[in-house]
């Protein structure tokens, strides 16, 4: 009798774990679909930017008031700019950064206007 209860309990646990596994698979599928949609959106945004709208780090650092290209790179790595809006990474993670100087200046100009002068 104890063996039957044990087997019944084991079967119940197996069914519960199967349901959990199915739920995880569904969530993973949803995440993968969302990831693919996000990639398409990023590709669309990136391709809609004209190459003359985007500046390399070596071109943009002076326009944005940085002392050197490396100082601008440090600011990019620190998260000072909005990825996919102001800063674009060409060719995946290994490519060079390109900056939308106009978008950066527009945001910085708005932030400057919102500051209170005491």
Overview of this protein structure:
The protein is mainly alpha-helical and 118 residues long. The chain has two domains: 48 residues; 68 residues, Multidrug-efflux Transporter Regulator, Chain: A, Domain 2. The protein contains four helices and three strands, in the order αβααββα. A three-stranded antiparallel sheet has the order 1-3-2. β2 and β3 form a beta hairpin. α2 crosses α3. The chain starts with a helix and ends with a helix. The model has no long low-confidence stretch (mean pLDDT 83).
Question: In short, what is this structure?
Answer:
The chain is mostly helical and 118 residues long. It has 4 helices and 3 strands; from the N terminus they run αβααββα. It has 2 domains: 1-48; 51-118, Multidrug-efflux Transporter Regulator, Chain: A, Domain 2.
């Amino acid at each position: 009798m104890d063996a039957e209860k044990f087997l019944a309990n084991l079967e119940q646990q197996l069914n519960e774990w199967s349901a959990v596994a199915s739920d995880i698979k569904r969530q993973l599928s949803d995440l993968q679909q969302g990831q693919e949609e996000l990639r398409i959106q990023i590709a669309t945004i990136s391709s809609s930017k004209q190459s003359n709208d985007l500046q390399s780090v070596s071109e943009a650092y002076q326009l944005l008031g940085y002392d050197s290209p490396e100082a601008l790179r440090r600011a990019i790595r620190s998260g000072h700019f909005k990825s996919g809006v102001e800063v674009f990474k060409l060719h995946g993670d290994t490519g060079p950064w390109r900056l939308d100087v106009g978008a950066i200046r527009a945001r910085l100009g708005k932030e400057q206007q919102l500051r209170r002068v005491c």
